[in-house]
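Students often ask what a holo structure prediction actually looks like on paper. The answer is less mysterious than it sounds. You provide the chain, you provide the ligand, and the output is a string of discrete structure tokens encoding the 3D arrangement of the protein together with calcium ion.
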Amino acid sequence: MIVKITSKTYSVAPIPLPILLLAALLLWGVLSSVFLKNSQHSSFPYFQLPIDRPRSNSINPNHNLTLLIMKRFVYPFWGLLLGSLALSSISSQAAAKKPSFVFILVDDLGYMDVGAYNPETFYETPHINALAASGMKFTDGYAANPVCSPTRFGIQTGRHPSRKDATNFFSGRRGSRFASAPLHDRMDLDEVTMAEALKEQGYSTFFAGKWHLGPTEEFWPENQGYDHNYGGWKHGGPWNGGKYFTPYGNPRLSDGPEGEHLPDRLATETCRFIKANQDQPFLAFLSFYSVHTPLIGRPDLVEKYQRKAASIQGEEFAPEEQALIKARNPRRVRILQKHAVYGAMVEAMDLAVGKVLKQLKDLGIDDEVVVCFTSDNGGLSTSEGSPTSNLPLRGGKGWIYEGGIREPFLVRWPGITRPGTISSVPVMSTDFFPTFVRAAGGEPNGAGTIDGVDLMPLLAGSGRLDREALYWHYPHYSNQGGFPASAIRMGHWKLVERLEDGRTHLYNLATDLGERVDMAAVHPARVSAMREKLHRWYQEVDAKFLQPLKDGTELPWHP
Ligand SMILES: [Ca+2]
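The corresponding structure tokens follow.
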């Protein structure tokens, strides 16, 4: 049965069984005394039970006595029993209305890497496409930061990572013209994670894959609310052992049979957890190491994409702006998708997504369990092999441009989202936390201000979000050549502020998604209003900025 789920329904606590039994008893007493008084052959349904069959009109005084006993005691007993069973079944269904969640986070997957967002993509993602078609697709879904650890911090806590100076991957401190801003390179234990908040509501919780939210084990998933942890630890990539293939050299993931592929293994563990926990509310957080470097694919899939790539012609790279001084080579950006190994990695990840979706279907719970899908930052297009192109989006991972922060962002919420719906409202992955926690019957409270907002009005098509702006703050030089910058988006306008010198650029995303035409000089009033709002936000989150180099005399800009 598909139950229409609303956030209001969840706030109703399940009624304890003894109270239900008592209520049924009282109700029965009232009804039976009324009906039995007036009717020799009541039309009450349970009177049709086989035992209620006076077969003849023959006069038998014992029969009348038997009938009386039946009606006074046995029938009421049956009624009470059936009524209680029915009510307790309703009660357990009310408890089961807490939605279970499968959250799928892919590492470094680009907006244009998925067929649902880019029908022309080089990569095959049929399972993700099907997920998009069966739920709501957000066209303007964002990561909180252009690199991974901060966005992950935001997903887990619902809080903007800049509030805790978790503004770069843990622990990136690259300098260039200036030194980077101070970086807090862990998610503190006093933060309230999605898993901790849902456990408060009686959920069982599971994590598989990349964590990258703390240097030592006290910060790993099992100490941040997850009952199970398969593979989450300090590293941001599968650097040890056979890397994407067993043996993994991962202290939180046992090795598998020879040839086992990491994305498939993470999906297998996720399926196992779902199957074992299908009768209770759960959070299964599947956090792929894919499609992050090292670029290593399944050999059969690599071969498939090599054949595909052979037919693709055209320039693969173009110049990109040079933000780092003393760079050995000029920075270039990929403008054509045809990287065979990356193609193999994307498809293997999609197959693993398909495995989990099939598990839900096989268990008959795909019409009950919420499935969300997103990535932690944009596709890698300017370094470390530059495997993908985000065009028409500018830049990629490590850049404040759309290529670095706009993400695939899908939500399938049975009973809430309608299949095939599209929302162009700007949303951020910090929004999952309050959305999940409220739907589970809790109040989204964290270690401080929650920046995400409950997406339910958008998902249910019942209203708008109460939010004026989205913000990004990246006071670092990225490994991918990106410059230190912040940004604010209001409506379709995006203002970028460079943190070396405070220069601003204004882009109209409705007409210039590729952020090529700087409109700042044309709209000075808009620039100053957005800038002022961004600067107020800096104060609110106590944002940190670039610092002078150790022996440097030049001072960086400061708001
Ligand atoms: Ca990442």
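The first strand starts at residue 101 and ends at 106.
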